Q: What sequence folds into this?
């Protein structure tokens, strides 16, 4: 069984908490741009994508980065990618 | 790119009709001649902002866009030279009304939005010294820099102020005023001035305060191996260098659309993101968003960028995205690509040829030099991997520089030594603020010692070899290990810290910290997360370590200094070399 949306969301928050442990993930507004709310530089962001690949099993191509703006859109995108596979 | 070894060592330039760059400066070279082109007579008044903005606002360029801003949502807005002159006069007058005087230090800390550019140029107009801060700095780098410079006024956004400044405001005793750009729409905050209100009520009579070529204009903080960051002070006369190098090293011409991707929080974004293109009179594209591969390709294509100045990390990220990223896109306008921040490997230069039909021109300079010193100039053939040759007016040497011995120029080609420059170029830094001793240590006779190790081949091309000290270059930014170590050491569990740059394919290096704990503390994942959170909160994402390793002990010299080089050698599995000075 692929991860469901809630599991993806929990994993994403866990990834963020691991890479940027100063983040209060409870304060993240899911439909506002993620990188406006937490401090992730471009290297952090690549590490997030690497963790997504390892822990969720989705390899996000650069051309899809635009679909990863908010926490909600990340979850939706990853769920649809998992459903495809 | 597997056939890389088959490639020739030289890229010969072939230009399309009408594109050939003019051959460089007239011989014999003189800075006075460059000054005359800008209407500057020796000893006459020089003001960067006047030359960059007001001069064009009074010419046929008045209604030409100086900047084209691309907002995060893709909306574009332009500001003409005339409008920029008017707004910078207003901001300059507002500063005067707040008591800011010539020589006072004004800090800016915000993203690449129009107000930032108005603030920088308005402050320069009235002779204030502008010090830009990188928006990804945490509160500690901000506090340290403002305190060192005795900053009088800070321009920032409400969002940044709440997150990074409000809590430390009480410690910034020199800071008289804070001007806030209301990006949150939440209205005025206590003890701050609102940008909009301030500008709306300010006079728009010319704000210019007379300055000379030797008056201080810019303060750029940079990092050394030891001690706090150093504030490198630059003068208004540096504008000659910005103007000359924009043409020689970037091939910038008045009708160009120019995109410098650097943030003005760093010296590249100030010298070549604001001043140089304005002085030449071009239109600059400013992308307000952070790096995004797809967005960058669209920006290059849709904005019709002619000249693009960027950094190896960004280029490597574009390469990583693969050729599919560029499929279906064309860049007929793109004529010249240059790079700065860290050495550009030959593969990237070749990738430029394959992707854009243009090579990428590496340039070398530092915060201290204020402008490009060594470059693969437009008219020259390129040896991929080389940083090029000294520009007109710049005399560079490779020197042997060892503690306790006189500095010696090395004349044998391909011998590694320190890159040194003969003093006298207009954008050379004039001081490390409040640290005359450290400033003096940068010079030997008439040579500025760069700290970068290079070799020079028989054709006079320079090749970067490494740093002569422990300073870390990460994603093009210079990071001092001491600043990172100091903050980590503040954590109650930490005994000692050594910080190194760990080689990274994309960023050049990432920050890794080796930490020893106090006797009663034991390593754990929870403690690691706590240390990382502490460092990121205090330093910001750009300077905080990406990796923390707990170790039993750190190697020291006899005098007690942590041997970062040995930590690095161990990290890389290299021979540890001479350990005679070890504990």
A:
């Amino acid at each position: 069984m692929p991860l469901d949306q809630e599991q993806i969301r929990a994993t994403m928050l866990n990834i963020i908490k691991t890479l940027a442990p100063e983040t209060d993930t409870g304060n993240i507004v899911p439909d506002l741009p993620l990188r406006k709310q937490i401090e992730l530089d471009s290297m952090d962001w690549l590490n997030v994508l690497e963790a997504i690949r390892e822990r969720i099993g989705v390899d996000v191509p650069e051309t899809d980065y635009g679909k990863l703006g908010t926490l909600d859109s990340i979850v939706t995108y990853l769920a649809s990618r998992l459903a495809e596979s | 790119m597997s056939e890389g070894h088959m490639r020739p060592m030289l890229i010969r330039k072939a230009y399309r009709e009408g594109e050939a760059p003019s051959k460089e400066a007239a011989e014999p070279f003189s800075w006075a001649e460059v000054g005359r082109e800008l209407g500057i007579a020796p000893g006459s008044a020089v003001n960067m902002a006047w030359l960059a903005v007001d001069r064009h606002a009074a010419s046929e360029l008045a209604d030409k866009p100086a900047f084209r801003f691309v907002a995060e949502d893709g909306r574009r807005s332009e500001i003409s030279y005339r409008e920029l002159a008017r707004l910078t006069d207003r901001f300059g007058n507002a500063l005067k009304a707040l008591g800011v005087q010539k020589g006072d230090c004004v800090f800016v800390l915000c993203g690449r939005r129009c107000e930032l550019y108005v603030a920088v140029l308005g402050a320069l107009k009235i002779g204030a010294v502008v010090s830009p801060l990188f928006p990804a700095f945490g509160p500690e780098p901000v506090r340290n820099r403002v305190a060192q410079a005795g900053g009088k006024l800070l321009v920032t956004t409400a969002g940044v102020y709440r997150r990074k400044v409000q809590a430390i405001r009480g410690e910034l005793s020199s800071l008289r005023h804070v001007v806030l750009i209301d990006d949150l729409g939440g209205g005025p905050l206590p003890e701050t001035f609102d940008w909009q209100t301030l500008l709306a009520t300010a006079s728009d009579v010319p704000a210019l305060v007379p300055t000379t070529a030797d008056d201080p204009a810019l303060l750029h903080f940079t990092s050394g191996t030891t001690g706090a960051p150093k504030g490198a002070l630059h003068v208004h006369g540096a504008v000659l260098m910005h103007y000359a190098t924009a043409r020689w090293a970037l091939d910038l011409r008045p009708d160009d659309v120019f995109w410098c991707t650097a943030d003005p929080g760093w010296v590249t974004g100030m010298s070549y993101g604001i001043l140089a293109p304005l002085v030449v009179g071009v239109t600059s594209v400013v992308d307000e968003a952070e790096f995004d591969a797809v967005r960058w390709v669209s920006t290059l294509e849709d904005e019709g960028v002619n000249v693009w100045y960027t950094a190896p990390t960004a280029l490597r990220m574009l390469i990583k995205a693969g050729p599919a990223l560029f499929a279906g896109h064309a860049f007929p306008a793109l004529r010249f690509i240059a790079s700065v921040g860290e050495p550009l490997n030959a593969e990237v230069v070749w990738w430029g040829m394959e992707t854009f039909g243009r090579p990428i021109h590496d340039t070398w300079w530092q915060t201290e030099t204020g402008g490009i010193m060594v470059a693969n100039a437009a008219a020259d053939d390129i040896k991929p991997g080389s940083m090029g040759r000294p520009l007109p007016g710049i005399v560079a040497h490779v020197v042997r520089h060892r503690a306790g011995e006189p500095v010696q120029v090395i004349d044998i080609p391909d011998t590694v030594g320190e890159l040194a420059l003969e003093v006298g170029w207009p954008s050379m830094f004039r001081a490390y603020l409040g640290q005359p001793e450290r400033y003096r240590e940068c010079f030997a006779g008439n040579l500025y010692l760069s700290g970068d190790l290079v070799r020079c081949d028989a054709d006079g091309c320079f090749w970067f070899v490494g740093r002569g000290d422990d300073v870390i270059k990460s994603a093009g930014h210079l990071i001092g290990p001491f600043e990172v170590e100091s903050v980590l050491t503040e954590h109650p569990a930490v005994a000692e810290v050594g910080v190194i740059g760990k080689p990274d394919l994309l960023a050049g290096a990432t920050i890794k910290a080796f930490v020893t704990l106090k006797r009663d503390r034991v390593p754990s994942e929870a403690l690691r997360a706590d240390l990382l959170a502490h460092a990121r909160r205090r330093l910001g994402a750009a300077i905080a370590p990406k990796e923390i390793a707990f170790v039993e002990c750190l190697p020291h010299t006899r005098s007690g200094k942590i041997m970062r080089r040995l930590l690095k050698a161990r990290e890389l599995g290299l021979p540890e070399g001479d350990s005679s000075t070890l504990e």
Notes: The longest strand of chain B covers residues 494-504. The radius of gyration of chain B is 24 Å. Chain B is about 30% helix and 25% strand.
